[in-house]
Specification:
Layout: H1 2-24, E1 35-36, E2 39-43, E3 51-55, E4 63-64, H2 75-79, H3 81-96, E5 101-104, E6 107-109, E7 112-114, E8 117-120, H4 135-143, H5 148-152, H6 158-166, H7 191-198
Parallel strand pairs: 1-7
Antiparallel strand pairs: 2-3, 4-6, 5-8, 6-7
Length: 201
């Protein structure tokens, strides 16, 4: 049933959020970490709707933090601490699952999130049925902009790996202070080495 699936999705995402919190909270300056609230399934055999879900009521301004499709751009995502940490959470899960899984539809009040979705690259990734299209993963990869929290967790930029094949030239001089006057070639940091280390798990 849809209700059971909804429970499964949210509680799976919740497990990832707990792992994320365990890794992020000890970092100096990271602060509070978003939490996905638990959702409980109730079985009511006598009722004509036998299954229902129960969750804590969130009081306050309800905000959608993550991109559901390319057209939806939410400024609160970029400007608020909760929004940035949600985007970092998406990036973290994406990296942890080698790009196979993405928690989408992050929404809620402040740092408390509910009604989230999951997109998987392959149907039945780790036996898990997502409830969102895998095109969300493509979109995330194209639209995600790393923020300070991604950096604190040492997540690899999706831009560099994405653009390496396509347009390696245009990104070269962007982050130099005044690239027009600098003729010196800046050596690339040992990026390949780092990729190698972090792809072990």
């Amino acid at each position: 049933s849809v209700v059971i699936q909804e429970c499964y999705v949210q509680n799976t995402a919740r497990e990832y959020a707990k792992l994320y919190a365990a890794e992020a909270e000890p970092l100096e300056g990271f602060g509070e970490v978003p939490e996905i609230i638990p959702i409980f399934l109730i079985h009511r055999p006598a009722n004509n709707i036998p299954y229902a879900t129960v969750e804590e009521e969130l009081v306050g301004e309800f905000v959608k933090y993550s991109v559901k499709d390319g057209k939806e751009v939410n400024f609160l995502r970029r400007d608020s601490e909760a929004g940035q940490k949600c985007c970092t959470f998406q990036h973290w899960v994406y990296e942890k699952t080698n790009g196979n899984l993405l928690v989408t539809d992050l929404q809620g009040v402040g740092m408390k999130l509910t009604d989230v979705g999951i997109a998987t690259l392959a149907k039945g990734y780790k036996g898990f049925k997502g409830n969102c299209s895998f095109s969300f993963i493509e979109q995330f990869r194209a639209l995600h902009q790393c923020n300070e929290y991604c950096e604190m967790l040492g997540l690899k930029s999706l831009r560099t790996t994405h653009q390496k094949q396509r347009k390696a030239t245009s990104t070269k001089s962007k982050n130099l202070p005044n690239s027009s006057t600098l003729k010196k070639i800046v050596p690339k940091k040992a990026r390949e080495h780092r990729d190698f280390i972090s792809s072990e798990h």
